[in-house]
Structure formats: C-alpha cells, structure tokens
C-alpha cells in the first residue's frame, strides 16, 4: 500500500511538493507565533531575574514599576534599609523612550540605577561598569550600540562604556543603564523653556514673591528644578526571612505597595501580556483552520482525479481499508513535508524578528502531533468520496 501511495504521489509530485512548501510556510508562521509568546514570557522572567530583587516597593495602590506608573521619593530607600529583614535596598528608575545615535532613533528602556546594587546589570560581555556619576551608560547588545558610541538622551550625550546581554523590558525593548541622577533628570525634569515659564509664573504669584521674604522665591524655584523621585525601591531580603515577613511591615508603616517576586510575575505574565496571548491564540486557531482547509482541498482534488483508478481497485477486490489507508498516507506525507519546511523556516527567520522568539522543543513536538492530526482529519472528506465510488465505473 505504501508503494501504491508513493506511485500516485510521483505521478503528480510537483503539485504535491509545492503544496507541502506552502503548508510549511503556514506551519512556520504558526511555530513563530508560539515562539513570540514564549519569548514574551521569557522576557518577563529575565526582567525579574536581572533586577536581582526579592521585593518591589512602589507607590501605594499601584502595580508598578513595569505595569503602570509609580513615583516615590528617593529618600524612602534610607528608611527601607532600617526595616527588619532588609539586607539591601536600592532606588531604581525606568523610562521607555527614543534615544539617538548618529542621528538615528533607537527605542530603549532607560534604567537609572546605583552601580553594584539591585537593578544594575549583573554581568557584562564587554567593557566595564559605570564608574562616573554622570554621562556614562551600559547598553544591551540588542540596541546595536558598540563600546565608545555616543548616545544622546534628551539634552545630554552619554558614552557607552559597557555591554550586557538579555537585559530587556517586559515589552522586549533593550535596556540602557545610566547613573540614577541622570535618569531622574531625564524622566522628571522639564525642558528649559518650561522651566523659564514656570519661574515666571512663580515670580508673578504674590504668595511666593513677598517683599519680606527675599529667599522664598529662590527656594520655590529651586524646588521646581530639582527631582527627588524614583519609580521603585528594589529590596533583597536577609537570610531567615520570608518575603511576606519583610513586606508586611513596609506596607503597614511606610504606606507603600510591596510586591513579591511571585506577585510581580503574576502582574507581568498574567495581566500585562494577557491580551497579547489572546491575540496570538486567535492567530494560531486561524492558521490551523487555513492549513487544514488547504490539506483537505489538495487531497480531495487528488482523489477526484483518480476515481476511475479507485474503481478498478475495487473491481479487482481491493478492500476499502486499503484505499482509505492510501489516501491517509498521502495526507500524512503532506503534513510531514509541511512540518519539516515550517520548522526550518521558523528557525531561520526567528532571530530576525525584533522581538525575542523562543522555539522550545516541546512546542515543536506538539506542533508535529497537531499537524498530523489535522492532516488525518482533513483526509476524511476525500476518503468518504473514494469509498462511495461504484466498482462498475471502471468498465462503464
């Protein structure tokens, strides 16, 4: 029976192979979409792991700093370091924005951090860590920056002194690490024109420009041009304490929201990328339906083209099970060709995607099983037509 199915495939091999290639491209897109979702989940896990934090202290009643905006004063970190169970605490600021290099824009997440503390890059693949208080940066290799490149962030230029890897935001944007003071200025301070206008408004306000208080106006204007806010405080807990044991007193006495690693993982994966996961799932369903329709149409067309030969087989006593097996083998062969082409295609074009595409062996195995089941179901229409053929048609 294998020989009979093979001979029939060789008779129209060009159509069969081209159909397998087209089906393979659809399967490749399907595997890539699954890899995009896996990559989003892996980016979220990498973000949490690279922060090297056990607790995220953020603005009260917010789910920051990755899912929504959070702003707290930078002096909160000093009180955090005195809380029971806190081993290390550090300020951190996050800002997704466009930076410029050689006149070209690059979307990155700018991270303000304290060198050697949670939130700073844990390792480098080239260069050195930041040693100056201003105008130095460490970039993820995905940015395309090289050592010595000058990157413009708002009004200032930064020199890339180090390169790291797999430091990305939850959206897949590569990170650019800068000193905390520079990040605060970039994120929270206004441009020069806005500062001049605010100073004029403040000077025109009699409450701040009193004749008997000569230093009041200068103090208020100085406060307007200084930034003392960060997005979060990252905390590492001391041995012998559980995350909840440390988080509870902070929530109670500091009036801030505290998220553990499990809670932050739930925010990033279950809530932040939930809509993207649903969209990817819909695309997978649509692609599966289209692939099944293509296989069903091709197998049905091939079967309709050899109805007289099937009638001859029935006339000489060939069993229905044998004829059904021949059609099923052709459908499964089409699925195997398509899956092989799709797997190679996804492996080749996956690294070219702007987002991280993670192709897991388990997803490939599941895709192979789903492809074979889809092809088997798609062949049922052609099998039903073949089994209804009248043996008398062979001599009619």
List the helices and strands and how they pair.
Layout: H1 2-11, H2 13-51, E1 55-58, E2 72-73, H3 76-80, E3 86-101, E4 104-113, E5 126-127, E6 136-140, E7 150-153, E8 156-164, E9 175-179, H4 180-188, H5 192-203, H6 216-224, E10 229-230, E11 232-237, H7 243-254, E12 257-260, H8 261-272, H9 274-304, H10 307-315, H11 320-349, H12 361-378, H13 380-387
Parallel strand pairs: 4-9, 6-8
Antiparallel strand pairs: 1-11, 1-12, 2-10, 3-4, 3-11, 5-8, 6-9, 7-8
Can you describe this structure?
The chain has 396 residues and is an alpha+beta fold. The chain folds into 2 domains: 2-42 and 270-392, no CATH class; 60-188 and 230-253, no CATH class. The protein is 52% helix and 17% strand. It has helices at 2-11, 13-51, 76-80, 180-188, 192-203, 216-224, 243-254, 261-272, 274-304, 307-315, 320-349, 361-378, 380-387; strands at 55-58, 72-73, 86-101, 104-113, 126-127, 136-140, 150-153, 156-164, 175-179, 229-230, 232-237, 257-260. A hairpin with a 2-residue loop joins strand 7 (150-153) and strand 8 (156-164). Helix 2 (13-51) packs across helix 11 (320-349). The longest helix has 39 residues, at 13-51. The relative contact order is 0.19.
Question: Which characteristics define this entry?
Answer:
transmembrane helix; ten-stranded mixed β-sheet; FtsX-like permease family protein; disordered N terminus; alpha+beta; 12 strands; MacB_PCD; ABC-4/HrtB_transporter; transport
Instruction: Give the radius of gyration.
Output: 31 Å
Strand runs, count: 12
How far is the first residue's CA from the last residue's CA? 26 Å
Q: How many H/I helical runs?
A: 13
- Oligomer kind: single chain
Output the structural class. Answer: alpha+beta
The fraction of residues in strands falls at 15-25%
